[in-house]
Write a structure and sequence with these properties.
3 strands; 3-stranded mixed sheet; Neurolysin, domain 3; binds zinc ion
Length: about 290
């Protein structure tokens, strides 16, 4: 395969590097990764005819967990691989749960492990990137977290408004979208070519049409993932214990129960967001 410029690594090399990342992070997690690699449970490469996207799945009768990605050799591959492996680690650690339906959390709790692994792996991604690129990659992960939280507010507030105003027409809906953008994502310069299309963003947001009120789940998960990133910077060992406990709990509780049993603060706790943003601003200032 020909790799585009700035490529992270070819497939085998990506897997070797990921193996070293997980070994540095936790022997237990590395063991899951090596098992998956040995048993062909990581389908990484993009190839003709393969479906798009990335996901993690399990074969409960065999007690195995697999991931599916579409690596093309750019730095986004690293993010996706870490993300899907986060799901996989949870899947492996939840195998002890007898009731198969309780092995995976409900959707509001399902992305904490995957987004959390994106943060936990950050300090070890020197395996993939030279220092300058790594620093950029790290900063961009924290920046995306903040952008995501703001954007989720726009989508969530918009959906509430749509249901409260069922008779509103297209123009009113467009105006409402713009209003919520101004409220939750202020400071964006929309002048120029983008301006006439600004309101159209909500038409592209699948969740508005098909999964009403689902979108806030991403923000709930991100507050858990950012907490793991913050905790890791302060106390790596405790952070790993928290992560592994979260993985072991699977879907045996509600999202708030899972957070609290693993030792994470509730996303609704006053003061949490301020702490996360303080930490994020420090991470963004790092070279
Ligand atoms: Zn995911």
């Amino acid at each position: 395969m020909t790799l585009p410029t700035g490529a992270a690594a070819p497939i085998d090399e990506q897997l070797d590097k990921a193996g070293r990342v997980f070994e540095r992070l936790s022997p237990k997690l590395a063991k899951h990764f090596h098992t998956m690699r040995r048993e062909g449970l990581i389908d990484l490469e993009n190839r003709k005819g393969k479906r798009a996207g990335a996901f993690c799945t399990s074969f409960s009768d065999e007690g195995k967990v697999a991931i599916f990605c579409n690596s093309i050799g750019d730095e986004g591959d690293v993010k996706t691989l870490m993300h899907e492996m986060g799901h996989a680690f949870q899947g492996w650690e939840s195998q002890w749960i007898e009731a198969v339906e309780l092995r995976w959390p409900t959707s509001d709790g399902a992305e904490v492990h995957s987004m959390g692994m994106e943060f936990l792996s950050l300090p070890h991604l020197g395996e993939f990137f030279p220092p300058e690129q790594l620093a950029r990659f790290r900063r961009s992960r924290w920046r995306r977290a903040i952008e995501l939280l703001c954007y989720v507010c726009v989508v969530d507030a918009f959906q509430h408004w749509v249901y409260e105003n069922p008779k509103a027409g297209f123009d009113e809906r467009d105006q409402a979208w713009i209003r919520f953008q101004d409220t939750y994502m202020p400071g964006i310069d929309w002048s120029g070519d983008a301006e006439p299309f600004r309101a159209l963003r909500w038409y592209a947001q699948l969740h508005v049409f098909r999964y009403p009120f689902y979108y806030i789940d991403y923000a709930i998960a991100e507050t858990g993932a950012m907490q793991l990133g913050m905790l890791d910077a302060r106390d790596h060992e405790r952070c790993l214990e928290t992560y592994l406990e979260l993985c072991r709990l699977g879907g045996t509780g509600s999202v708030l129960e899972l957070f609290s049993q693993a030792g994470l603060r509730s996303p609704f706790e006053p003061g949490l967001m301020a702490d996360l943003m303080n930490h994020a601003s420090g991470a963004l200032a790092e070279a």
